[in-house]
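re: ur question from yesterday

yeah so i grabbed the chain u mentioned. its 175 aa long if i counted rite. heres the sequnce exactly as i have it in my notes:
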Amino acid sequence: MERCYSIIEQEQILLEYTDLSSKTRSNLYGLYLSDGYGCVILLDKLLDKPENRRLHRCVLSEELGHHFTAPRNDLPRVFGSCSLGVTRVLPDDALSKVQIAQDERKALEWATNFLMPNNEFNKAVAAGCRTVYDLAEWFDVTEWFVYRKLGIIKARYREIAIKFRARDYFKVRLL
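ran it thru and got these structure tokens back, copy pasting raw so excuse formatting
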């Protein structure tokens, strides 16, 4: 978390904890807001509790990912993180939906690489982590986050025409 807070301070992002989840039906835990004047990350105050430490790390990192993988236009954007990692934004048209989905994927990829860099992921597997639970423990993240990392790895292998299943990771190394 210290790395996240350091980045927030360095990038001059306003971080606020507020009551998000009880005000929405979707268990909203985080929002990233950006306009021409500055950036704000709003996190649900429930994340600041010790029992939600892992979810807190994942949500905050994903919201930081939006900061570093900026959308492709200058329009103000709002991105939110829900309880299962699903981000819900209501766009006006099909093109906006596609662009937002791509922006979300980029932010999540940034976040998984930030909290679980490929070289550290390889070290964890070499050290004996053989399950999603083991990897989540190793990196102090949620299991859902590990599944997303494995999905990103799978997509990377697919780009170079290698068939990949999550169980295959333990036989090959990341590129």
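noticed a couple things. Residues 128 and 135 are 9 Å apart (CA to CA). also The chain has six helices and four strands.
anyway ttyl
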